[in-house]
Design a protein that fits this description.
By secondary structure, the protein is an all-alpha fold. The chain is built from 5 helices and no strands. The N and C termini lie far apart (198 Å).
Length: 347
């Protein structure tokens, strides 16, 4: 019992000690907090006092400056009242000062531009001097080239004189060639005309042959084949008319033949005798045209024979003349065994 009571007493004592320590610790913490707070407050008061003192000092200085400014204003007003034109003079002086400052600025800019131009001019002068030196060298070289060119020109003149003689010779040759070309062109034109006339003559002879055969068909009482021959002859005559020049006498005669052929074609179905009369008239006109075309050829042939007889040697006793035989072409649209009819006077 005594030991338990002693333990309880010791526990109470230790608790009291712990409580006392905690109380003193709390007091210490509270004291520190209070001290810090009071110290901060005191520092704040000191700072606030200093700030207020500084503000009062600044305010005092501002007031002093304002009083001085007021005094200066009063003095300026007094001076201005004493000299009324001074303000205007000062204003004019300020304007003149501004104008002079502007002019000085412009002068500075102009001076800088002139300096730049002067530098550029100096560079150009240096470049011009270099170019002058190069030009002097070029002039010397040009003089040498001119001398060489003069020598070449003299040599060229000699060659030109020789070439002129050759050109004169070539000019004569060209003139001769031109005459030859003109003669050849005229000969070609005459040959072409002769060929065209020969082709027209052959076509007319073919048409004459077809008309003759058509008349023969009528004699054989075969108007169908006669009409075919008449149509083919009309086509050939139309081609000949197209190839003839305008306002030609043969063209009018051939148109008459075409008219007769057209009438014969119409009359073949109803009146064979009248169709034969039309074919006979067409045949006569074609025969006259062919005779007119072939007569100049015969006259030329006789003239050539006469000239040859006159120029022949006297000892030649006989002259053999070969006659050419003309082969009459046959129509390709007719049977091959059809013979070429001989001209008959009438039906």
């Amino acid at each position: 019992m005594s030991e338990g009571t002693t333990a309880q007493r010791r526990g109470c004592g230790s608790r009291l000690v712990w409580i006392a320590k905690a109380f003193f610790t709390l007091l210490l913490v509270v004291g520190v907090i209070v001290g810090v707070t009071w110290g901060g407050y005191m520092i704040y008061q000191v700072i606030q006092t200093e700030i207020a003192r500084s503000a009062e000092s600044v305010t005092t200085r501002f007031d002093a400056q304002e009083s001085r400014i007021d005094i200066l204003r009063e003095e300026v007003n007094v001076l201005t009242a004493a000299n009324p034109g001074q303000e205007e003079a000062i204003s004019k002086l300020r304007q003149e000062l501004t104008a002079v400052s502007t002019q000085l600025t412009h002068l500075d800019e102009d001076l800088s531009q002139q300096n730049d131009m002067l530098a550029t001019l100096e560079a150009n002068v240096a470049l011009t001097l270099n170019n002058d030196e190069a030009a002097a060298d070029g002039i010397i070289l040009l003089n040498d080239n001119l001398a060489a060119l003069q020598r070449d020109f003299n040599e060229t003149s000699v060659h030109l004189d020789a070439f002129g003689g050759e050109v004169d010779g070539l000019t004569g040759d060209v003139a001769a060639l031109n005459e030859t070309a003109v003669f050849a062109q005229e000969s070609a034109s005459e040959s072409e005309t002769a060929v065209n006339e020969m082709a027209q003559t052959l076509m007319l002879f073919r048409a004459w042959e077809l008309v003759s055969r058509a008349r023969l068909r009528l004699l054989e009482n075969n108007p169908g084949l006669a009409q075919t021959d008449v149509a083919e002859a009309d086509k050939i005559l139309q081609m000949v008319i197209f190839s003839l020049p305008e306002a030609s006498a043969e063209s009018e005669s051939l148109q008459t033949v075409q008219t007769r052929l057209a009438l014969s074609t119409i009359n073949l179905a109803n009146d064979v005798a009248l169709a034969g009369t039309d074919l006979e008239t067409a045949w006569d006109v074609l025969d006259n045209i062919l005779a007119a075309r072939l007569q100049p050829v015969a006259e030329d042939f006789e003239f050539e024979q006469a000239v040859e007889a006159e120029t022949a040697e006297p000892e030649v006793a006989e002259t053999t003349v070969e006659q050419t035989e003309t082969v009459t072409p046959t129509a390709t649209s007719q049977p091959a065994d059809t013979a070429t009819p001989t001209p008959t006077p009438s039906l």
